[in-house]
Amino acid sequence: MDSCIFCSIINKKIETIIVAENEQAIAINDIFPKAPTHILIIPKKHIINMTDISAKNSDVIAQMALMVKELSQQHPQFNLVCNNGPEVGQTVMHLHWHFLAGTDIFKKLF
Ligand code: AMP
Ligand code: ZN
């Protein structure tokens, strides 16, 4: 999708360092990190968020999960966050999981 920043990154219209890649997903460093390690796991297909997942595209989720597993080899302890919808903080309307490591980001919440 033309107006989507993550599609532009995937289509190489915006230059970004890709920290991991598989058939259906990429991982990049978040531009405004909220933890010492803050990586975004992004499907290559333009999927809006988890509500946009169906039996037809759910294979993407398995690939994203495999990427989490790959990243966990370097960062075995982490938080995985998905803001699903603008009212709970989703600002980029292309599915992504935040992989956060190196601190307890939920210290004050849980
Ligand atoms: P969310 O608020 O859950 O939609 O998360 C969107 C995330 O994308 C934020 O943490 C932003 O800092 C991050 N972000 C936005 N633009 C870029 C970009 N060009 N490269 C890397 N991260 C980005
Ligand atoms: Zn997109």
Architecture overview:
There is one protein chain. With 110 residues, the chain is α+β, with helices and mostly antiparallel strands. The chain has a single domain (5-75, 84-109), classed as HIT family, subunit A (2-Layer Sandwich). 18% of the residues lie in helices and 22% in strands. It contains two helices and five strands. It has a five-stranded antiparallel β-sheet, with helices on one face. A hairpin with a 7-residue loop joins strand 2 and strand 3. It is globular, with a radius of gyration of 14 Å. The structure holds adenosine monophosphate (AMP) and zinc ion (ZN). Zinc ion is lined by residues 1, 4, 6-7, 46, 94.
Map the helices and strands.
Elements: H1 5-10, E1 18-21, E2 25-29, E3 37-43, H2 59-72, E4 79-81, E5 97-101
Antiparallel strand pairs: 1-2, 2-3, 3-5, 4-5
Bound molecules: adenosine monophosphate (AMP) and zinc ion.
Summarize the structure.
This protein is of the alpha+beta class. Helix content is 18%, strand content 22%. It has two helices and five strands; from the N terminus they run H-E-E-E-H-E-E.
Structural class: alpha+beta
Name of the CATH superfamily: HIT-like
- How many strand units? 5
Q: What is the CATH topology assignment?
A: HIT family, subunit A
Shape: globular
| Computed Rg | 14 Å
How far apart, in Å, are the first and last alpha carbons? Answer: 37 Å
Question: What portion of the residues fall into strands of 2 or more residues?
Answer: 15-25%
CATH class: Alpha Beta
Structurally, the number of domains stands at 1
Small molecules bound in the structure, each named once: adenosine monophosphate, zinc ion
Largest sheet: 5 strands, antiparallel
Count of alpha/pi helices? 2
The overall pLDDT average reads 97
Strand line-up in the sheet with most strands: 1-2-3-5-4
Q: What are the segments in which pLDDT stays under 50 over at least 5 consecutive residues?
A: none
By oligomeric state, this entry counts as single chain
Query: Percent range for helical residues?
Result: 10-25%
CATH architecture: 2-Layer Sandwich
* SSE ordering: HEEEHEE
